[in-house]
Amino acid sequence: FDNVGIIDYGPDSENSKHTIHVDPTEVDLRADGILHTVPPGELASVRLGNWNPDGNAQSITYSLVVDTATQGILIMKYAVVLDNSGHERYEEPYFRIEVLDSLDNRMELCGQADFTYSDAVLKSQEVDSWHLTTYNGEEVAWKDWTVVGVSLMEYHNQKIKIRITSADCGQWVHFGYGYFTLDCANAHIETEN
User: Fold this and answer.
1) What's the whole-model pTM score?
2) What pLDDT score does 184 carry?
3) Which pLDDT score is estimated for 47?
4) Beta strands in the chain, from DSSP E residues, in sequence order
5) Alpha-carbon distances of 92 from 26, 53, 118, 153, rounded to whole Å
């Protein structure tokens, strides 16, 4: 995980690897023109990766010191687009989300989400899960916006990291990328009498 800086030529560029999408009406053409690049209710999303199969991987890591009074729950929203590589699983395009503790260990419960194309095909039969389509003659799998909450209560006053990674296939011919948003909320339930 070397720091080489942000590669951003804007959301329309296939060369952008870390870019922000702000138009809630914009759709991803590689996902049937159905997947919105910004999830409902959000102002923006980050796209990590692109549809240019240049054999690269890219990552973004966010660090925060947890204050459970205001940050008891980490809320992640993500959507994924993966090209069909037909390769062994270890060479396929992927999208990964990791929540790490102060020692860079993955948190035990809900500390990782990891997706490859073959995972997507297996899960494409599930309701509201993965969708299969064709783009430029290639089969593409895409996952619509999904929301995940991770409890941070046991990490009060500790530094944690959220690391998101996307990668193309190992043979430089198939792409993989995803969109995400991150937010925190308190973990208190309030009721009205």
Assistant:
1) 0.88
2) 87
3) 97
4) 18-21, 45-48, 57-65, 73-83, 94-100, 112-116, 130-135, 138-151, 159-167, 176-185
5) 27, 11, 8, 35
